[in-house]
Structure formats: C-alpha cells, structure tokens
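Worked example

This section walks through a single chain of length 137. The input is the sequence exactly as stored; nothing has been trimmed or padded.
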Amino acid sequence: MVTLGKWSVIQMGEAVLTAKKVLEADEAVLYGIFGVIGGSGYFPPRAFLNEFFLVGSDPCDQDRRMGCWQPFTLSDDEYHEVKAWWAASHPGVVASDLGVDCWSDWVQVILNPEDWGYPDGLSLTNEPADADDGSVS
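Given that input, the structure is written out below as tokens.
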C-alpha cells in the first residue's frame, strides 16, 4: 500500500490478495454476506463486487465481527483472477448480474429470489468458464 497525502492506494497485485482475504474472511464470519453467496452458486460481476469492496466493510455483518478494510477496486484482470480463485473452492459457480443493476439489488436477489421473479429459487446455468456473460462454471 502506498500513502499519498491522506489517501492510501492499494498497489497492483495487492488488490487481488486483499480481495481474497476479504472474501475468505467474510464467507467465514457469522452474518457475512459471502457466507450466503458461497452457497448460492453465483458470484457477482466485477462492477458489483467493486461496489462491495468500496464500502470497506460488510453491511450484513452488523456485529462487525469481521472488521473493516481499506476500500479498493479490482481491474478487469484482477477480477478474473479473483473469480477463478473463488470458483476453485465453489465448483459450478456462475458470475451473473441476475438481471439487476447494482450490488444492493444483486444481494437481495441472492437472499430473496422469490421477491425478484424467481418463485422456485435461482437456477444455475451450465455456461463455459470464458462465456461472455461472465460465468465461471
């Protein structure tokens, strides 16, 4: 990390490591949203994941058991590296926007699919890992 005045900037390469640490910790902590996401079969698109990382904490972790992180974003290449890492421990996972435009709506689809037009829950597709839709299965 480099400090520029009052700003700290995560250097190239550090973002991937930081993302992995955040996602791993968030998946493990009680009430962490990635605990739910990890069992959903889905992974957020880069723009949505970056919205999450820019907050610097998980709003679902209301007890702050996980703590905070320095807000950051992933480049396209960094996102693909993190997505592949996630897929290695979550076989069949699919990256999808689930038909919504932002992180907060995406999380609501994961948590309450029936409220978003999925009366039978979310179904997974079997798209190849390099599909244009961002799937990683």
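What to look for: The longest helix spans residues 14-28.
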